[in-house]
Amino acid sequence: xxxxxxxxxxxxxxxxxxxxxxxxxxxxxxxxxxxxxxxxxxxxxxxxxxxxxxxxxxxxxxxxxxxxxxxxxxxxxxxxxxxxxxxxxxxxxxxxxxxxxxxxxxxxxxxxxxxxxxxxxxxxxxxxxxxxxxxxxxxxxxxxxxxxxxxxxxxxxxxxxxxxxxxxxxxxxxxxxxxxxxxxxxxxxxxxxxxxxxxxxxxxxxxxxxxxxxxxxxxxxxxxxxxxxxxxxxxxxxxxxxxxxxxxxxxxxxxxxxxxxxxxxxxxxxxxxxxxxxxxxxxxxxxxxxxxxxxxxxxxxxxxxxxxxxxxxxxxxxxxxxxxxxxxxxxxxxxxxxxxxxxxxxxxxxxxxxxxxxxxxxxxxxxxxxxxxxxxxxxxxxxxxxxxxxxxxxxxxxxxxxxxxxxxxxxxxxxxxxxxxxxxxxxxxxxxxxxxxxxxxxxx
Length: 444
What we know:
Elements: H1 2-11, H2 13-18, H3 24-31, E1 32-33, E2 37-38, E3 44-50, E4 56-59, H4 67-70, H5 79-83, H6 85-88, H7 95-104, E5 108-109, E6 112-115, H8 119-129, E7 134-140, E8 145-152, H9 160-167, H10 181-184, H11 194-204, E9 214-216, E10 219-222, E11 225-228, E12 236-238, H12 240-245, H13 249-258, H14 261-270, H15 298-302, H16 312-323, E13 327-329, E14 334-338, E15 344-347, E16 352-355, H17 359-374, H18 379-382, E17 387-395, E18 402-410, E19 416-421, H19 424-427, H20 431-443
């Protein structure tokens, strides 16, 4: 009992006080004005203002631009407003100022949260997606810092009362406007998953994976399952790099049919499928194959269809792990806490999450993906650049509707970009184009 009390009083104190359902916060807000949330480049994206009636209100200067990342301060809170609740309602101004404010009956200013988010990248993501549903996330692979987190459709947190009323109504009960697609959206990974299939093939064939060869005639059968390449493509004789570059479905179904399913499962589990990523409010990605699975499920799974699901954040972290030499850094969205005078209160340091692959595996995957952007499916946008990555076209219904993915990184700069455009056939917008515009904004 004594140890249990110590655990909550010391180790979990901030979590308990920071919980939006804890009435102690009501008392804290009587004496402290909630602090600001800022981007890494110093732009205020959430602040407290006083209205004409003299009441404090939370205000978001850029409306919907940062809505899912920053969240809102009502209805049990969300996003950074929730995760940093304690810090925003804690004051660390100097003791003289605090005493003066206390004696005068004034509130003390709360601490400010400085995020890792970049205004230009966030704006580029919004402009690139335009009216399309989807998600964009950009990460610094060497640190795990999230530079951009944008989800669409979005909402204006300044109008959260109206938004909340709508989603609770019969008309809006199916709305996903409050869903942060970056962290909670679960999608078939499409051909972006072929990077993982390639990794498993390399692990099971360490001495001769470079000798892989397959002849693509567009359509083939594997364990009784018909697999065809996109748009009637015939790729001819391909090696492993060509297979990835051209996103050859039949070649990867062929590779999948040769894999040890349990080892494949183990690799996916080690890459954080079926377990929680160390970040707030993230859905678990899923990979369902086991040694008991019917072989007929393997071909579709190997090409990124089947029952595999992944969040954009997870997909980005896998790419960041490759960019970082096999080491996955813990994703972070808060860089530091400052008091109202700008003095440092707390600095959050980057943390290694886990080593997920060897340096040589990461280097080889980088080499394989270079074909995608040099002469493959993303070459129309990235040929001649330092970007490597993988495209993906993922069917999500029986009528052929598809989501469009791109996940990749700049080999000369410390940035990974992963994006998904839902129902890309309707708009003509691709994940490659969206990612390209975010990379462009980063290099300006």
